[in-house]
Amino acid sequence: MRGAMEGGHGSGEMSRAGATDRLLDRWKRITVTECSPGRLAFAASLDDDAHQMELELLVEESTGRVLSARGQMPRVPYHDRCRAALPVLDRLVGHHIGPGSTKEVFRLVGGPGGCTHVAELVIDAFRAYVPSIGAKAIRQWRDELTRDGCPADLLERKVQENVEAMGRAILPDTCVVYATNKVPASGAVDSSPVSGSGTGR
């Protein structure tokens, strides 16, 4: 990687850049907790030299439906003009996390009446939905398989198969793992059915 960067176009400018030339540090953090049975609380934050934004989403675990959405902007470059975008978060209530969410979020909370950073932070939070319910399901599957006496060498394979099937059911065709048709290394799509695949919403 280092050799490729040094040999590429503009490598001279990159090699001359030092620590004092830093222009931006941006950090994002997403935390998901089970705040009550069947409900997940998403806390999403963005922090950089110009922005500090915090969002809170309450989501129905079984459906991915947004129950509430709120946010605050302790630090933004245009102060009240930026904060005027916060009320658009109400538009997320009733939205279901799933295929097409990225486009829909930008339509609901981005654009001239919203904020690109808020939209991107919501999308980052939404992307934590499947891993979160997956983490909970993995614990349950491991416990059940262990109680049933499943051999250790078989347990993890069964858990992974269940995770992939769940992912295809919730977010079909959003990545190579959740593809409803097998995608071989050549890139051509195999039309044969995938064992254990589910149907999306």
Describe this structure as you would to a colleague.
The protein has 201 residues and is an alpha+beta fold. Among the domains are: 27-126, 2-Layer Sandwich (Enolase-like, domain 1), CATH 3.30.390; 131-170. Helix content is 37%, strand content 19%. It contains seven helices and four strands, in the order ααββββααααα. A four-stranded antiparallel β-sheet has the order 1-2-3-4, covered by helices on one side. A hairpin with a 2-residue loop joins β1 and β2. α4 runs antiparallel to α5. The protein is elongated.
Biggest pleated sheet: 4 strands, antiparallel
Which bin fits the share of residues in helices? 25-40%
Number of helices: 7
Shape verdict: elongated
Structural class: alpha+beta
Please report the total strand number as a whole number: 4
Average of the residue pLDDT scores? 84
**Strand residue content:** 15-25%
Alpha carbon gyration radius:
21 Å
Q: Provide the spatial order of strands within the biggest beta sheet.
A: 1-2-3-4
